[in-house]
């Protein structure tokens, strides 16, 4: 759902999502945690209009979004880049607005484990989702996903792709991700289930309430969580320490290849784009 359709008379260039990130590892030891977070969701065609005392684009503000942190990472226009990816993937139905949801830079610092690009058609229906994933080792990969036949993506749509980026030293590079997008007029949630060769291993979700990004909402978010992005990195390492204490399997920064006994059963597991999963030219 396009956030701009929430109310006929409300059409901000950016939204603030205030909520939580939820993570649950199911084995070999149960390991759940939940943290409060906030994100910005910006209309890529209207970035130039976003500038206030508290939030800006490509300039220093207490909260900011820098185009060089995303997509081609060269500071070029993100809407142009994303539309080129959609065209190359044949997702022609996504001819409407594109919204980028990410953790903002807070006092100049940012780290985004995952950023989401919501690509709509001209009627406001979601047609593609780009998940831009980063790890703490400096690597990144983008997964471009669409529904079968490029149909509109609903809360019932399951978007699958093969895992190709090493994210955690406690997981192998194998298996698949399953994404779901659930939105109401006032809330948004993206869930990611990670399945390795033995089945469902990790559930993750990022969701919360949507409000127009204004001077007052930006200031309120900053007051509540002034160390948001620094805290993301600290919490990643804290949870890693907890997994070490729980003696979770550790595969290191350069894990061994996937287990050869786990024969792929579909195109995604075989390393080929599955229905709705498209390669990104910049990776």
From TrEMBL:
Kindly provide the name given to this protein in its UniProt entry. Answer: Cyclopropane fatty acid synthase
| Segments of skewed composition (Low complexity) | 259-270
This chain's source organism reads: Paraburkholderia aspalathi
Q: Which InterPro entries match?
A: DUF1365
Top-level taxon: Bacteria
Q: One short Pfam family name for this protein?
A: DUF1365
Chain segments carrying region Disordered: 255-283
